[in-house]
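Blinded run. Sample ID left blank on purpose so nobody reads anything into the name before looking at the predicted structure. Input follows.
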Amino acid sequence: MGPSRLPLLSAGPAAGSAAPTSPAVVNSTVYFGSYDGKVYALDAATGQAGTS
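Blinded prediction complete.
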């Protein structure tokens, strides 16, 4: 499953802390991992969570 097929999840206080990994940017969406074991996505232009 490539980054473009990952579910977009909203990030927020419940998401936990971002893990010390490099983010990936695909089609203006920033994907990053968290210590809670999930992958989160933010719109690169607006910072809005869970947008496509």
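Unblinding after everyone has recorded impressions. The beta strands are 24-26, 29-33, 39-43.
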